[in-house]
Design a protein that fits this description.
This protein has helices spanning 11-25, 34-44, 88-103, 118-127, 155-164, and strands spanning 2-5, 47-53, 56-67, 72-79, 108-114, 130-141, 144-154. The chain is α+β, with helices and mostly antiparallel strands and 170 residues long. A hairpin with a 2-residue loop joins strand 6 (130-141) and strand 7. It is globular. It starts with a strand and ends in a 6-residue tail after the last helix. The model is unreliable at 166-170 (pLDDT under 50).
């Protein structure tokens, strides 16, 4: 598994993947055209990385809500529907999180997940993320309000988790 910083040539894949997963899995269900995605990319220069498996793009990571002072950041990943259910998300997080903690020096990684996304919640718990709270009725999907669950993991917890499963810290 490899990760590359997103480039203009990745935008069609990113836009397609996001649009396919937005309605069910993302807090923001809007869909974007390639042109909108290109404008966003050029204006924001986002901290996104493409997830590659054997030379094929399978998804992407995003890092947002940086606090350099507090050394914390939000993380998220989306896997293209053609590649879901193959264990790629779990392996990608296992490989990417050490970069966030040990290469980039963050102390805490946070995320938000819709309460209806049990598969992702199970993944995050397996990775060692802990539920910190819940934003009740935070997102309206159709005519149903859905809670947003706040989860996080600290650098020391990740180190402890790595020792527990016999992985070396990077």
């Amino acid at each position: 598994m490899e990760f590359t910083k997103i480039t203009k040539s990745d935008l069609e894949f990113l836009s397609n993947t996001r649009n396919l997963v937005a309605e069910e899995f993302l807090h923001d269900s809007r869909k974007f055209s390639y042109e909108e995605c290109l404008t966003w990319f050029e204006e924001t220069r986002p901290y996104y990385w493409i997830i590659w498996v054997e030379g094929i793009r399978v998804g992407y990571f995003r890092l947002t809500n940086f606090s350099k002072t507090n050394r914390n950041v939000y993380i998220g990943a989306d896997i293209h529907p053609d590649h879901q259910g193959k264990g790629y998300a779990y392996q990608a997080y296992l490989d990417f999180i050490p970069r966030v903690f040990f290469t980039w020096g963050f102390h805490k990684i946070s995320l938000e997940v819709l309460s209806t996304n049990q598969r992702a919640i199970n993944l995050y718990k397996k990775l060692g993320f802990i539920e910190e709270g819940r934003k009740r009725d935070e997102v309206l999907k159709g005519d149903i309000y859905i809670d947003s669950i706040l989860m996080s993991i600290l650098k020391d917890e990740w180190r402890s988790e790595e020792r527990r499963v016999g992985k070396e810290c990077k």
